[in-house]
Amino acid sequence: MTDQENNNSISGNPFAALFGSLADAKLFAAAQRHRQRAGGPEEPAGSQDDSDNSVSESLDDGDCSVAEISRSFRSQRELCEQLNTNHMIQRIFLITLDNSDPSMKSGNGIPARCVYLEEMAADLDEQDWLDMNNVEQALFTRLLLPEPGNHLIHMTSACAQNLSAERDAGERQILRYLYACFQRAREEITKVPENLLPFAVRCRNLTVSNTRTVLLTPEIYVNQNVYEQLLDLMLEALRGAHFEDVTEFLEEVIEALTMDEEVRTFGEVMIPVFDIVLGRIKDLELCQILLYTYLDVLLYFTRQKDIAKVFAGYIQPKEPSNGQMYQKTLLGAVLNISCLLKTPGVVENHGYFLNPSRSSPQEIKVQESNIHQFMAQFHEKIYQLLKNLLQLSPETKHRILSWLGNCLHANAGRTKIWANQMPEIFFQMYASDAFFLNLGAALLRLCQPFCKPKSPKLLSFNPTYCALKELNEEERRSKNVHMRGLEKETCLIPALSEQEPEFANSYNLVTENLVLTQYTLHLGFHRLHDQMVKINQSLHRLQVAWREAQQSSSPAADGLREQFERLMTIYLSTKAAMTEPQLLQNCLNLQVSMAVLLVQLALGNRGTEPLELSFPLPAVENSALAYVPEFFADNLGDFFIFLRRFADDILETCADSLEHVLHFVTVFMGDVERMKNPHLRAKLAEVLEAVMPHLDQAQNPLVSSVFHRKRVFCSYPNAAHLAEALIKVFVDIEFTGDPHQFEQKFNYRRPMYPILRYMWGTDSYRQSIKALADYASENLEAMNPPLFLRFLNLLMNDAIFLLDEAIQYLSKIKVQQIEKDRGDWDGLSPDARREKEASLQMFGQLARFHNIMSNETIGTLAFLTSGGDGGRDPKEREGPRGAQELSVSVPEIKSLFVHPFLAERIISMLNYFLQHLVGPKMGALKVKDFSEFDFKPQQLVSDICTIYLNLGDEENFCATVPKDGRSYSPTLFAQTVRVLKKINKPGNMIVSFSNLAERIKSLADRQQQEEETYADACDEFLDPIMSTLMSDPVILPSSRVTVDRSTIARHLLSDQTDPFNRSPLTMDQIRPNTELKEKIQRWLAERKKQKEELEESLN
Question: Which residues of 838-852 are buried (b: 16+ CB within 10 A; e: fewer)?
Answer without folding.
Answer: eebeebbebbbbbbb
